[in-house]
């Protein structure tokens, strides 16, 4: 599974961090960091993260 | 396994309807799904309508949700409205004359803006709920030197006022019957701080003030207040709450007094084959006091869809859901000018005991709301640091018991 975040859209709401903490995180200054090629076992979590992104900036590419 | 001929009808095709369809698939529903929606558009994201889209920083075409692959085979009936339902017969009637029968029904018809019923012209008066509303408001706001009156000092009203200032409006005034904007959800401490921030950035306020009418012949020229003042206005935005789209459910013995009442599993009227999702659902939250409420936060369509889909699919497939009662942790945000409000939990339930937890009111601040010594919610105001600080309290709010009903 490949995860792509449109960083031009991302506004660092952090909802994805709550949904999929193994894939998405915030650094100390509140900027998003993420794992671009997470294990496929995390697909449900990543789908949820994509759903709850207020900017709809997260895309899953197979 | 579900029979191929079985069908779930989802009435309402905005975010809640889409998420319901996706979650039905995720919960194992392999039967047919039909989504019925009155707007001609595929489901789209609404928060940017009062902010980035209105400001011209994001295109209208960028708002559409990307549906999950699992719903590629659902039937979309866009531009079509559910006008009646006979729950005893498992049927829904559409405005094109067709009657759909269903095995399961998802009520996802949402809200529409409440309108002011004062006398005066209609042209020049706007609401911000749909993409079409926002398009027309953007056109009006981008004319040179407009004077704008926003009626209603809630989150949407204040976001629109901030955006109008950013677009260069000559004058922007927010009218509200209460003494402070956003005090209902946030309490006086933060509302006072927000009033100050808005005023510093050029928004004017007419508070403790009611609208009695609109001046002008064909087009609005002003907003008349109860004390006789007339605020000159080329553009009026009505942001005075919303009304649940439940008329189509009349005649089924349901409690439709404010949205559609559900039980703790989002079932409607004691019917296991009917569930409600999104902001039309009035549900008890087991995390708090068990009083059923509608919640108009952005996260609610997704949260309710997930729970309701499991409830419904378990019933339709004859299995047991065994779900704990629905107990979402509410969260909302609002972007206004250069600051963001970020909330977790239920601040409105703890307004009698409000304390600054971190920071200072005229800078980045995190405010805690308590009842009986218990933290019910936090709200951060400011930049990114405040939001990060607030999210630390989220874990504390989550740990608190979600009592079983």
TrEMBL record, chain A:
| Alphabetized SUPFAM superfamilies for the sequence | 4Fe-4S ferredoxins (SSF54862)
GO terms for MF: 3 iron, 4 sulfur cluster binding; electron transfer activity; iron ion binding
Alphabetically ordered keywords of this record: 3Fe-4S, Electron transport, Iron, Iron-sulfur, Metal-binding, Transport
The chain positions of domain 4Fe-4S ferredoxin-type read 1-29
Q: Which cofactor does it need?
A: [3Fe-4S] cluster
Superkingdom, natural source: Bacteria
Q: Name one Pfam family in it.
A: Fer4_13
**Matches recorded under PROSITE patterns:** 4FE4S_FER_2
The answer to whether keyword Zinc-finger applies is no
Task: State its role.
Answer: Ferredoxins are iron-sulfur proteins that transfer electrons in a wide variety of metabolic reactions.
**Can you say what this protein is called?**
Ferredoxin
Q: Please tell me the species this chain comes from.
A: Streptomyces roseirectus
From TrEMBL, chain B:
Question: Is Cell wall biogenesis/degradation one of the keywords UniProt gives this record?
Answer: no
Segments forming domain Reductase C-terminal: 332-392
Transmembrane segments annotated in the record for this chain: none
A GO cellular component term found in this entry reads: cytoplasm
Give the top-rank taxon of the lineage listed in the UniProt record for this protein. Answer: Bacteria
Note the SUPFAM superfamilies from the entry: FAD/NAD(P)-binding domain, FAD/NAD-linked reductases, dimerisation (C-terminal) domain
Name the InterPro entries on file: FAD-oxidoreductase/Apoptosis, FAD/NAD-bd_sf, FAD/NAD-binding_dom, FAD/NAD-linked_Rdtase_dimer_sf, Reductase_C
GO MF annotation, one: oxidoreductase activity, acting on NAD(P)H
Q: Which residues form a coiled coil?
A: none
Q: Which residues form the FAD/NAD(P)-binding domain?
A: 7-289
Cofactor (UniProt): FAD
Record flagged with keyword Flavoprotein: yes
- Keyword vocabulary terms for this entry: FAD, Flavoprotein, Oxidoreductase
What is this protein identified as? NAD(P)/FAD-dependent oxidoreductase
Organism, by scientific name, is Streptomyces roseirectus
Query: Lineage of the native species?
Result: Bacteria, Bacillati, Actinomycetota, Actinomycetes, Kitasatosporales
């Amino acid at each position: 599974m490949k995860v792509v975040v449109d960083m031009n859209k991302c506004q660092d709401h952090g909802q994805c961090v709550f949904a999929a903490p193994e894939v998405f995180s915030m650094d100390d200054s509140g900027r998003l960091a993420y794992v671009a090629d997470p294990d496929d076992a995390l697909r449900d979590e990543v789908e949820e993260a994509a759903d709850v992104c207020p900017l709809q900036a997260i895309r899953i590419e197979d | 396994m579900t029979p191929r001929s079985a069908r779930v009808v989802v009435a309402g095709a905005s975010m809640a309807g889409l998420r319901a369809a996706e979650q039905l698939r995720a919960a194992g529903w392999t039967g047919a799904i039909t989504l019925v929606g009155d707007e001609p558009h595929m489901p789209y994201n609404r928060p940017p309508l009062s902010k980035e889209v209105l400001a011209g920083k994001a295109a209208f075409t960028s708002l559409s949700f990307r549906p999950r692959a699992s719903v590629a085979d659902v039937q979309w009936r866009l531009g079509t409205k559910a006008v009646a339902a006979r729950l005893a017969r498992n049927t829904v009637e559409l405005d094109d004359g067709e009657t759909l029968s269903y095995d399961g029904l998802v009520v996802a018809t949402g809200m529409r803006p409440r309108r002011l019923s004062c006398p005066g012209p209609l042209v020049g008066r706007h609401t911000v709920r749909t993409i079409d509303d926002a398009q027309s408001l953007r056109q009006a706001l981008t004319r040179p030197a407009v004077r704008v009156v926003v009626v209603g000092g809630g989150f949407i009203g204040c976001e629109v006022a901030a955006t109008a200032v950013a677009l260069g409006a000559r004058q922007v005034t927010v009218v509200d019957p209460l003494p402070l904007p956003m005090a209902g959800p946030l309490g006086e401490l933060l509302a006072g701080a927000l009033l100050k921030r808005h005023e510093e950035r050029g928004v004017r306020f007419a508070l403790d003030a009611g609208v009695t009418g609109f001046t002008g012949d064909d087009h609005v020229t002003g907003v008349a207040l109860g004390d006789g003042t007339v605020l000159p206005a080329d553009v009026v935005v009505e942001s005075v709450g919303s009304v649940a789209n439940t008329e189509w459910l009349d005649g089924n013995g349901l409690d439709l007094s404010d949205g559609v009442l559900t039980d703790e599993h989002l079932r409607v009227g004691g019917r296991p084959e009917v569930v409600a999702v999104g902001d039309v659902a009035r549900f008890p939250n087991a995390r708090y006091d068990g009083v059923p409420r509608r919640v108009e936060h952005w996260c609610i369509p997704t949260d309710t869809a997930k729970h309701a889909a499991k409830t419904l699919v378990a019933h339709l497939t004859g299995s047991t859901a065994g779900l704990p009662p629905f107990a979402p942790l509410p969260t909302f945000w609002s972007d206004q000018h250069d600051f963001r409000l970020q909330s977790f939990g239920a601040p409105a339930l703890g307004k009698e005991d409000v304390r600054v937890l971190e920071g200072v009111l005229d800078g980045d601040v995190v405010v805690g709301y308590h009842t009986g010594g218990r933290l019910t919610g936090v709200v951060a105001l400011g930049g990114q640091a405040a939001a990060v600080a607030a999210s630390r309290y989220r874990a504390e709010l989550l740990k608190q018991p979600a009592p079983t009903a």
